[in-house]
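Same chain as my last thread, 193 residues:
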Amino acid sequence: FQPRKWVTVNGQKVVWEACQTFNGTWGYTREGYHWKSVALILRMFIDTVSKGGNFMLNVGPTGRGAFDENTLDRLNAIGKWMYYNSRSIYNCTQAPAEFKEPKDCRLTYNPQKNIIYIHIFAWPLELVHLYGFKDKIKYAQLLHDGSEVEVIKELPEPYTRHEGIDTSLTSLRLPIVKPNIEVPVIEVFLKEK
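reply #2:
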């Protein structure tokens, strides 16, 4: 299972690990038809890091010691995603509580570099609204290609007419079309504390 928050014992955060499989079995089975998609595996991986955990993905070889096509397809896709987005995983953990996760996103944080990574599970229409980021962003970019993401400190008048829009939040303007990457990541460089 994937916990809803950092695992605690007696109210104290503990070291924890999410142990997952590709298809519901801990070893190879030729009848393994319940394969998780690459998108689901990546979401579980990111979700684990966003809650301060370690992610272990079980790989079961065949009786001949090889990995089957389904396993190789998923491992290659995860490797491709990591090639572009590994900075959002390595040396990262849960973001400070002041930064709230936008809808359909997960945050990871590199405390040594003071960078927040926004992993987008469902591509929004143009804007990502950020709570807790007001006046804290130095620069933002899409991680896979390094292209700048516009930081909007105050929404213009057409957006503020809609009921329920908080005009004090910070927003990021994204391309209308989702980039050709399974889970896009925005790298947010924070101002010095």
